[in-house]
């Protein structure tokens, strides 16, 4: 669980609900800086080793001036890094085109599931193979204005470089074009922070992956996936052709969230699908901590983004938005950042329609929560009955059953060829509520089961049962109460594999019965893809959710052992039951994406993804009942314990994506919330707001501080301290590594003091 300090005082007055009121004036800029001596970074499509790095100017006609290099060429190291020293040909304040090319001996580490073949041998994830001599990849630096500049070169920076040259051809200054293009690509692909200075992670290397942040993993997975998506559509393409194809697609219109008809153009949905596939390859690398919270957090965020693109995305291609203040620096950027926060804070009141809809959601929540769980439980009963019916049908050697009943739910079995259909159509009572069940499942399940019964020398009987099942069900139907209806649409499917073992021993006499049991069930590689609707069916303005649910599960295991004992004679009766049950879950990923709407026409589109791994819970229970000469006696005990420690605990992460419309803000604001468990009682969370190309990123890492940053690399860090029961807030605002403002509440109000002597107060 996440246990933050009192950040209502610390952050919310600044970022959400308070207004920054100007008390001082003055502007000021960041001041001039000497041209850079060094431009360095890493080349990665995976890691490029021995690639030649050049730096060039961009001519006014949009061409790359290769006649006068701006630095002596260098070769990338084993880890893909390079460092260029600019020469006197570089003109201060102008853009620099960084280009990686492959010459004899240049190699690359494969960072997708397969990178073609060399001499007929497949090149797999993590393998190193030679690059074609025609391979190139670029990044564009708007200007070199500090002593050392980081420019990493990836397929995503290559896209931005192509877009930059296109803008220059249309008349833009190269530096302005580079700023705009880098910002656009970051915006379109949901990348936090800038584009060219993102941390490069060798995702084929366990140490690099284990030490990477969530944002760095997110960037590198997307960079690898962009090319993987191109190659999946056309495996015949060379790597260099795939890079060129991706860049050309963006330059010629951009990328859509999804598509309704299949084309050669990739979509955000396809890119993120490949990112998840690559993530599975990363987790399989020897030494990678697959349960690491940063890796788990990246997985959950990408899962949410993929589900959001698939369910709620736009089919119109886009190149991304450009912030209206892109490129501001120093003190100017700092004050623009404060203004950005002020504008969002001032607009923090949701529109009247959204407020009304929020009220309706709140009013409907209890009804949906109550009957929503009831109709879901009813569907669970139906699915359980169908599962038992499948087992009975498969077990029958001679006459196959035409029906089966479990927990008063009757399943009708029909056949057509080699396929069986299992149907339920009846009313059931759940939680004292009548629910109408209509459910159909088409079976593709294969069961292999062994049973044995042995009579022991002491008169007891031992029953053993074991087997495996590969289940594949397509399901549709509904569960309807007087207040709610849960529907599963046609095309929904469940699949996976199951194994089970069970042993029980029964001993029976004239006045006693005893049974002991020891069994286990393991579900592996389970997946569900469901199209669902949950709707309120009563009320003046009923609320409903319509969308898609996806479930993937690596492993669920359940073991149970116990004993039941009863005795009975003319003087009385007694029975008791004692059990121990252990449940383990590993690799559970769930996503839910769709629309909340009401009868009045209000709606909210949202996506949620959650993951759980390394979950281990043991439950123990004991109950007894007796009556006789001493009357009635009853006792009950039931307790569950996860037995977690500081070193061993379940990992969980959550990601939520939705759009809001705030008065006073021209663009809809995309809200992306993420949270991860980092310890037994600690966690970290972040909120990214994106609108009109702008970003505002809040990060809470589980201590007494939070950071708030934007698209211009401006960062506010606030820390809360307590001395003698008095709480104070202090912090700084930096642009890059340079401080331009201090923040404190020494005077009773939180004050922002700028480096030029002006100040603002937080009221």
Question: What topology emerges from the helices and strands here?
Answer:
Blueprint: H1 7-10, H2 12-15, E1 20-22, E2 38-42, E3 48-49, E4 52-58, E5 64-65, E6 74-75, E7 81-85, E8 96-101, E9 107-109, E10 114-118, E11 121-124, E12 128-130, E13 136-141, E14 148-150, H3 155-169, H4 174-188, H5 206-210, H6 214-233, H7 239-251, H8 268-283, H9 293-312, H10 330-346, H11 352-395, E15 403-406, E16 409-416, E17 419-430, E18 433-443, E19 446-455, E20 461-480, E21 484-508, E22 512-536, E23 543-569, E24 572-598, E25 603-613, E26 615-628, E27 631-641, E28 651-660, E29 669-677, E30 683-691, E31 694-700, E32 705-710, E33 714-723, E34 726-735, E35 738-744, E36 750-754, E37 759-762
Parallel strand pairs: 2-14
Antiparallel strand pairs: 1-37, 2-7, 3-9, 4-5, 4-6, 4-8, 8-13, 9-12, 10-11, 15-16, 16-17, 17-18, 18-20, 19-20, 20-21, 21-22, 22-23, 23-24, 24-25, 24-26, 25-28, 26-27, 28-29, 29-30, 30-31, 31-32, 32-33, 33-34, 34-35, 35-36, 36-37
Helix pairs in contact: 3-4, 3-7, 6-7, 6-8, 6-9, 8-9
């Amino acid at each position: 669980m996440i246990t933050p300090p009192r950040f209502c005082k610390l952050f919310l007055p600044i970022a959400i609900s308070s207004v920054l009121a100007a008390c001082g004036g003055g502007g000021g800029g960041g001041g001039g800086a000497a041209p850079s001596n060094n431009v360095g970074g890493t080349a990665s499509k995976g890691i490029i080793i021995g690639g030649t790095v050049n730096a060039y100017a961009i001519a006014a006609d949009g061409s790359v001036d290769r006649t006068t290099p701006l630095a002596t060429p260098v070769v990338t190291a084993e880890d893909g890094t390079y460092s260029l020293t600019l020469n006197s040909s570089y003109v201060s304040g102008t853009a620099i085109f960084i280009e990686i090319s492959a010459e004899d001996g240049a190699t690359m580490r494969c960072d997708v599931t397969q990178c073609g073949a060399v001499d007929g041998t497949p090149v797999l994830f993590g393998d190193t193979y030679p690059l074609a001599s025609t391979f190139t990849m670029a990044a564009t630096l708007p200007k070199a204005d500090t002593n050392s500049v980081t420019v990493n070169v990836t397929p995503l920076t290559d896209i931005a470089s192509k877009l930059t040259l296109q803008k220059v051809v249309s008349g833009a200054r190269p530096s302005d074009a580079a700023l705009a293009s880098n910002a656009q690509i970051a915006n379109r692909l949901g990348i936090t922070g800038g584009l060219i200075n993102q941390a490069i992670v060798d995702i084929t290397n366990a140490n690099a992956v284990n030490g990477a942040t969530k944002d760095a993993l997110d960037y590198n997975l997307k960079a690898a996936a962009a090319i993987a998506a191109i190659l999946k559509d056309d495996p015949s393409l060379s790597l260099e052709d795939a890079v060129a194809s991706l860049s050309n697609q963006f330059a010629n219109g951009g990328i859509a969230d999804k598509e309704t008809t299949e084309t050669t153009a990739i979509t955000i949905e396809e890119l993120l699908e490949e990112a998840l596939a690559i993530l599975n390859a990363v987790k399989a690398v020897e030494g990678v901590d697959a349960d690491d919270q940063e890796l788990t957090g990246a997985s959950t965020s990408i899962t949410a983004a993929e589900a959001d693109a698939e369910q709620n995305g736009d089919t119109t291609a886009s190149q991304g938005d450009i912030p209206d203040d892109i490129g501001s620096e120093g003190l100017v950027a700092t004050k623009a950042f404060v203004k950005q926060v002020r504008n969002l804070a001032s607009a923090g009141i949701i529109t009247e329609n959204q407020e009304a809809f929020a009220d309706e959601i709140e009013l409907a929540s209890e009804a949906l929560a109550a009957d929503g769980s009831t109709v879901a439980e009813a569907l669970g009963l139906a699915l359980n009955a169908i599962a038992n019916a499948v087992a009975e049908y498969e077990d029958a050697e001679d006459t196959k059953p035409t029906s089966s009943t479990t927990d008063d739910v009757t399943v009708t079995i029909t056949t057509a060829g080699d396929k069986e259909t299992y149907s339920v159509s009846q009313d059931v009572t759940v939680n004292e509520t009548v629910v109408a069940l209509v459910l159909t499942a088409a079976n593709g399940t294969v069961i292999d089961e062994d049973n044995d019964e042995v009579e022991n020398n002491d008169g007891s009987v031992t029953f053993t049962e074991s087997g495996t099942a590969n289940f594949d069900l397509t399901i549709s139907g509904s569960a309807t109460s007087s207040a709610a209806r849960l529907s599963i649409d046609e095309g929904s499917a469940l699949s996976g594999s199951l194994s089970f073992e069970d042993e029980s021993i029964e001993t029976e006499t004239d006045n006693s019965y005893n049974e002991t049991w020891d069994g286990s069930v393991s579900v592996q590689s389970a997946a569900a893809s469901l199209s669902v609707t949950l709707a309120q069916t009563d009320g003046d303005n009923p609320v409903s959710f319509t969308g898609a649910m996806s479930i993937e599960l690596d492993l669920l295991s359940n073991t149970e052992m116990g004993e039941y004992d009863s005795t009975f004679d003319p003087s009385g009766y007694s029975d008791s039951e004692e059990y121990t049950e252990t449940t383990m879950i590993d690799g559970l990923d769930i996503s839910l994406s769709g629309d909340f709407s009401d009868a009045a026409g209000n709606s909210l589109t949202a996506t949620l993804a959650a993951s759980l791994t390394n979950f281990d819970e043991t439950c123990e229970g004991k109950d007894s009942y007796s009556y006789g000469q001493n009357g009635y006696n009853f006792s009950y005990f039931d307790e569950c314990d996860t037995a977690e420690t500081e070193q061993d605990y379940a990992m969980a992460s959550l990601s939520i994506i939705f759009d809001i419309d705030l008065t006073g803000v021209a663009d809809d604001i995309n809200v992306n919330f993420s949270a991860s468990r980092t310890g037994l009682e600690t966690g970290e969370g972040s909120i990214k707001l994106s609108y009109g190309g702008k970003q505002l990123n809040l990060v809470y890492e589980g201590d007494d501080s939070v950071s708030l940053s934007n698209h211009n690399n401006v960062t506010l860090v606030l820390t809360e301290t307590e001395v003698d029961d008095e709480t104070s807030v202090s912090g700084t605002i930096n642009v890059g590594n340079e401080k331009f403002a201090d923040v404190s509440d020494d005077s009773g109000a939180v004050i922002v003091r700028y480096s030029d002597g002006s100040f603002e107060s937080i009221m």
